[in-house]
Amino acid sequence: MNLTSKSLEIASEFARVRRLRYALDMTLGNGRDTLALARMVEPGGAVFSFDVQAAALENSRNLILKEAGEDLLEKCRMFLASHEMYAKFIPENIVDKISVAFFNLGWLPGSDKSVITELKSTAEALRSLRGLFVRRARAGEDSLLNVLSYRGHKGAAQEFEFVEEFFNSLEEGGTDLTGVAVSRFGDFENPESPVLFSARFFPEGRGDI
Predict the structure, then answer these.
(1) Mapping DSSP to helix (H, G, I), strand (E, B) and coil, where does residue 123 land?
(2) Which of 67, 148, 149, 178 has the fewest CB atoms within 10 Å, i.e. is most exposed?
(3) Could you please report the per-residue DSSP string of 151-169?
(4) Which residues make beta-bridge pairs with 162?
(5) Cα dihedral sign, 93-95-96-97
(6) CA-to-CA distance for 33 and 134, rounded, in angstroms?
(7) For each of the chain's 209 residues, which pLDDT tens digit applies?
(8) Beta strands in the chain (DSSP E)
């Protein structure tokens, strides 16, 4: 199973039945997730994307221009910043309207693998989004959080363990949670294969539809 494609498939399904105006790509990489999300958001919407490497922004801009042109590029707001800083770059009146967030943890494809996502920033970003999406559920709105976590490279084990525990805690629920449904995809018999974690947040009592 191609987990990147699966993540986009889940988001596409979400966008078909729920309003998708604003999305986050928390690990821009070479821009393929941002490109796909930009095609899903409504007219006038936007995808806010973050990466700590300038090459990611340049590669992504070139990809989007080549495959979709200037009109779609206008929907893509790309920032040279770590993903836990996302709220500092997005207008306050828009943050609570974000309904989809993607993470593709690991390294920039085709680059030096010594630059990887870090546990501290990933944990901070995920905890912030948990709060945002719980608030949205309480307000009657749906949200989707997808995290593709790689675990075969040096430094990945602790980050993967945190992500796994984070989604386990969502599934188990808590006093501040509304409705949430968690799915996992991957080769679970291979300890080095990536895993896609997906959580849908929805108003309590309505069910995940």
Answers:
(1) helix
(2) 67
(3) -SSTTHHHHHHHHHHHHHH
(4) none
(5) positive
(6) 24
(7) 899 999 999 999 999 988 899 999 999 998 999 999 999 999 999 999 999 989 999 999 999 999 999 999 999 999 999 999 999 999 999 999 999 999 998 754 545 554 556 688 899 999 999 999 999 999 999 999 999 998 765 667 788 899 999 999 998 876 567 899 999 999 888 888 899 999 999 997 665 55
(8) 22-25, 46-51, 76-80, 98-105, 143-149, 179-186, 195-202
How many residues are recorded in the chain?
209
Rg (CA), the chain: 16
Total-model pTM: 0.91
Rounded alpha-carbon distances, angstroms, from residue 52 to 19, 132, 157? 29, 23, 21
Our CA dihedral for 102, 10, 184, 29, rounded to 10 degrees, sits at: -30
Edge-to-edge strand ranges of the sheet holding 76-80: 76-80, 46-51, 22-25, 98-105, 143-149, 195-202, 179-186
What are the structural domains, with CATH classification, of the chain?
Answer: 3-202 (3.40.50.150)
